[in-house]
Structures are given as C-alpha cells and as structure tokens.
Amino acid sequence: MSLQVLVTGANGFVGKAVSRALLQRGDRVVGAVRRAQTAADGVREWLLDTKDFEGIDQRWPVGFNCDAVIHLAARVHLMHETETDPLAAYRATNVEGALRVAAAARRAGARRFVFVSSIKAVGERSLGRPISETDEPAPSDPYGISKLEAERALLDYGRASGLEIVIVRPPLVYGPGVRANFLQLMNAIARGIPLPLGAIAARRSLVFVDNLADALVHCATDPRAAGETFHVTDGRDLSVPELARALATQLHAPVRLVPVPAGVLRLAGRLTGRSAQIDRLIGELRLDSSHIRERLNWYPPHTVEHGLLETAAWYRSTH
C-alpha cells in the first residue's frame, strides 16, 4: 500500500536518497525545502522557509493528509561556530522545531514519525566495544546534546499523543554528494598528498547513504519499528588506513600513508587547536547495529565496496 510521506530536508544529501527510495516503492513524497526546485525528481515540493518550523500549521499544504514523516532537517554540527549561545541555537531547531513538525503532522493524520538523530547523541567514541542502543548517552557537544534532548522530547510527545516515534542514529554518512571531512579525504588522496594515518588502528562505523535511506524507509513503514531506537551501519567497520586504501583504489590514485603515532597526531592537534578534528579522525567509533537486523530483519542492501565505488565514481565525474 502506497503512503503519503513528508520528508523534511528533502533537498539535502540524505533527503534526496530517502525521497528516491520512497518513490521507487510507489509512495507519494512531499518534500519540505527552503529553496524551490532543489528536491529529487518526482517529489512534490513544499516551500517552507520558516525559522525552526514556526507557523508550520498555518502553512500546511491544503488536503495533504500525511501517513508518515521522515524528519531530516536539522541544525547540523558546525566546525566553526558563530553563535554566542550554540546550545540555544541547536535546541531551537533540533528540539523545538522537531516537536512542531511532529505535532503538525499528527494533526494531519500521521501515524509514524521517524527522527534522524546522530550517534553524537550518545558520544564521540567507543571504548573497546561497539556502542549499542542501550548504552547510557553522554553527548559531548551542543549538537549531540540537542539531538538527545530531541529524542527524549519526541518519545514523550509520542506517548502522550499516540504518534509512533522511531529514532535512527547514523554514524558518518557517505555517498555521491558527500561533503565535509569525507570529501577532504578524497581530495587529498586524489591529489596524492601524503597522509599521516598509516599507524592508526582504530576502526569507525560508516553508512552508505543508500543503505541509510533503505533503513529509514523500513522505519517509516514496518509496524515493528514503532517506539524503537536503531543504530544503522554498513555492517563492516574500516580502519582509517583501510578506508584510505579502498578510496585510492576506486579513485585510481596512489595512496601515501605515513605511519605517524597517534600520540604525535594528538599533540599536533592540541598545538594547532584542532584536537576535536584529530580525535574524530583517529579515535574508535564503532556502532552495534544488530538491533535493527533482529527487530526488522533489515540488512544493508549495498556493501561497503559498492558504496565506495559509487562515491568515487561521483567524485571523478565532478572534480
């Protein structure tokens, strides 16, 4: 049975992949976007250029009875923060904004609300074993704190209103169109720049954007997902050198990995004020994604190798 699904942030990196996955199922997709003609082909755009979804009820499309929402729109983690009170800014969008969308959708008949959170709601690293959904959250920055607060506020709202809430916490998402650190890594490899990562043994979980989109569609449509929290990964964790070598192969570029000890890199991070970036690069962050497999019988449809091949092909065609 086809559904009417609202996707917020539909013109983003993940939003376009989710929209395509829903359309392939035969669902009807309304995409909330800030700029016209930016969503995937086949998406009915809803131009909603409001701050933190204020007044969403008054702007709700006439006749749009929504079955489910996949809420991707967020104030994302920023490397160079400009707000004097970052936590308040994150809360305004990621907590209050999400609650406004949930309440408006519920009034429009929605039964299911999938909230795309982040593993940062739990923490920045794993210590010897993968992080599971039952581990005690300890977010370390305003973005992570706001995502955890949003999860808890939405679950409370769901209990009070009857709206089925599903929480999904992805790690780093990659794929065609990826930006930020992953794109910088590909740039460096493509240019043959030596990377001081040869001695880094820590592994990190990743998720290919089409794997995440497939999981989100399952979370929006499977009755067994109601009320659950899921960690979603590719199911295979790579070390940074393994990732760099795999990307180099797909980019047809030489990989130059220099074995610099982790302690030296951390010292360099402290001296240059880039400790957070270095820690993210060399620290372990593995997720246990067995719960979604056991609960929904969901398995990633694409391998890591396929995801990296698609990402490298996109990079070669655009750079």
UniProtKB/TrEMBL annotation:
It comes from the Bacteria. SUPFAM superfamilies: NAD(P)-binding Rossmann-fold domains. Gene3D superfamilies: NAD(P)-binding Rossmann-like Domain. Residues 5-230 form the NAD-dependent epimerase/dehydratase domain. PANTHER family: BIFUNCTIONAL POLYMYXIN RESISTANCE PROTEIN ARNA, BLL5923 PROTEIN. This is UDP-glucose 4-epimerase.
